Automatic annotation (TrEMBL):
InterPro entries: AB_hydrolase_fold, UPF0227/Esterase_YqiA
UniProt-recorded name of the protein: Uncharacterized protein
Highest classification ranks of the organism: Bacteria, Pseudomonadati, Pseudomonadota, Gammaproteobacteria, Alteromonadales
Pfam families on file: UPF0227
Protein species of origin: Shewanella mangrovi
Length: 179
């Protein structure tokens, strides 16, 4: 089972395409949707939804994959649910770059401070990061500097922020899921 967390643009047709691509790895790919606008509520909602999906699968190696803002959530929820995680251009600092787009962006900073202390150290090796060198929205060098201390990072030289094609990375994702 692969749980897919969309980015801020929840209605993007690219989400459906990425789900279809992930089905080459696992037939059981499930979209887990959330509001994107209310961080405090999104966290609880995502934890409940992921827990529900975990109870409904016999997969011994489920994976959670998040794109953009979904990557922010996938890293935290994956850690709390003890799942391997794939982060695709994760938006690690939404409290800085989502001003004016979401209600109460400061809640992201609050969530980060309330999360388990040094959770990335405790989660070392349990995430794979795909970053776009051509990300037009996020500073992926900043993300790479932070996440590279804890996780394997692959930098893609072609994909833009929304990372429309996972195809060249499906082998890496599959290997990570089943390792």
């Amino acid at each position: 089972m692969i749980l897919y967390l969309h980015g801020f643009d929840a209605t993007s047709p690219g989400n459906h395409e990425k789900v279809r691509q992930l089905q080459f790895i696992d037939d059981d790919v499930r979209l887990v949707s959330y509001s994107t606008l209310y961080p405090k509520y999104d966290m609880q909602h995502l934890l409940n939804e992921v827990n529900k999906h975990l109870k409904l699968t016999s997969d011994r190696q489920p994976l959670i994959l998040g794109v953009g803002l979904g990557g922010y959530w996938a890293e935290r929820v994956g850690f709390l649910a003890r799942m391997r995680t794939v982060l695709v251009n994760p938006n690690l600092w939404p409290e800085e770059n989502m001003l004016g787009k979401i209600d109460r962006p400061e809640e992201y900073a609050d969530i980060a401070h309330k999360c388990v202390s040094e959770f990335r150290t405790k989660n070392r090796g349990n995430a794979l990061c795909l970053l776009s060198a051509k990300d037009e929205l996020l500073d992926t060098s900043r993300s790479e500097a932070l996440l590279g201390q804890y996780y394997q990072v692959i930098v893609d030289k072609r994909q833009p922020h929304k990372f429309p094609s996972l195809s060249s990375h499906l082998t890496s994702i599959k290997s990570f899921k089943f390792s």
